[in-house]
Amino acid sequence: MKKITLLLTIMFTSAVYCQDADMKLYIEKTEVVSFDQYDFIKKVNQYYPDILVSRQVTNNIINNLKVQEILTTDFLYETPKDCDAYKVSISKSNTSLDYFYKLKDGTFVSGDIRLFAGSVVRTLYKLKDKTRVIQYYVDGKLLNEIK
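User: That's the sequence. What structure does it adopt?
Assistant: Structure tokens below.
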């Protein structure tokens, strides 16, 4: 009996020590928007109404059983009626976001919006059929357009 107990003890303790220390879990969590995120998306929506305000986010988290780190944060939306797809992701610093949506007429719209020196700066890329447009905005005003 002592031999079996000793054997089992050695087996279980060695199995615990042999596990990979860099084991990672990827978790997706739906949460309420933080105050900083809400303030940022609200400010963005004032200048660019096509970027919608949301009260919920999905956090994509990596957890190595010691430290939990947020990889990406996506706002949760009902897909707007004029869109086939709609996605907005915010950075960890809550000062920039990336967006993508596809309109029902086949137009792809993507880009990013950043806070820079107190201004809201937007880069917009549009693609429809063979037409490509790049637009640069500051506080809702078009600065430059490249076709």
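The radius of gyration is 23 Å.
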